[in-house]
Amino acid sequence: MIPMKKYDVIIIGAGPAGSSAAYVLARSKINVLVIDRYPFPRYKPCAGGLTVKTFKSFDFSIFKEVKYSTNNVVASYKNKIFHNISGNKTLTKMVERKEFDNFLIKKAVDSGATFLDGMKVTEVVWENGEFSVKTEEQFFRCNYLIGADGTNSIVNRTFNIVERDLYGFAIEINCPLSKDNIGKFNMTFDFGTVPNGYLWIFPKDQYVCVGAYTTNRKMKNIQKYLFDYIENLGLVPESKELKGHIIPYYGIYYKQPDFPCILVGDAAGFGEYCTGEGIYYAVKSGTIAAEVISSSIKSEIFDYRTLQRRYQREIIRGLKLAYHIGKFFMVISLSHLIL
User: What pLDDT score does 335 carry?
Assistant: First the structure.
């Protein structure tokens, strides 16, 4: 019989949400285990843009992880610029998610968290006031469980915390830059081509990430929009293999159950309808979950009401507003806005 090691908290998933939660918990001297199915560092499809509120939320420097910073954001309509946002302060910092996620989990480990990568969780059970977590090789127990395992979360599928019925879809590919083109592309959102969405350019150091996002999850020809856009830009993709990922926004209906299992980040559905932003909400929800668990461990009572209030005030309220505003503007032709 394999012994079951017990932790105060187990986090399934080591993206920004899980790593942020682990970092806060470990710094509070709480015994926390993070499990991820992929060996780190691992590829993660994501444009990797950090907004001001995101990079200001870290209490440590991310300077070495930043590939590109910009104080200029362009909005265009069918590749014709109609608005340019610029200023003296940095608006967005670009990271490579493979490296950035590895950096974040290392910060958690350096603070005292235990990390097991390349280990798939196959079952989670809530029984007799504690969780059992089964992987393909080991068993673990804990008093608190955090699901940070993305839109296909085994934690959410097991406990049915939030319905996964609202989401968009994005595809992307990297395009290498010649020496003459480095620094020539602005961070860009191009409207008018992709129905119910947009095309984007996110500059990095030696390449740009070009992608397409739509709230119409049934769209079948989004790949053609993207490749046509890349061709019009005069770029050549590094391959023909596109990477796709779901942008969830069903977190506007998140309701925290009264037992100590919390969803964070994409697992909770915390993505923004208009922009597709998810990293900020991942970091924010992971931090909130960790802080509530820390105080709950001290009081020996899971304060699920405080968790729901903080989610509602600090995350869900803003996501709901973005959702309803986005739904309104998606049905208006952007050509009218240009005139």
Answer: 43
Assigned token pair, 273: 């309808």
Q: What is the mean pLDDT of the chain?
A: 92
The yes-or-no verdict on residue 308 having pLDDT over 60 is yes
Give kind and range of the element (H or E) at residue 293: helix 279-299
Domains of the chain listed by start with CATH number: 5-48+96-162+249-330 (3.50.50.60), 55-94+167-248 (3.30.9.100)
Copy the structure tokens of residue 205.
């150091």
The DSSP result for 107-159, as a single string, is HHHHTT-EEE-S--EEEEEEETTEEEEEESS-EEEEEEEEE-S-TT-HHHHHH
Identify the pLDDT of residue 40.
96
The span from the CA of 93 to the CA of 70, in Å, is 7
Q: Is 279 exposed, middle or buried (0-12, 13-18, 19+ CB in 10 A)?
A: buried
Taking residues 181-185, what's their average pLDDT?
84
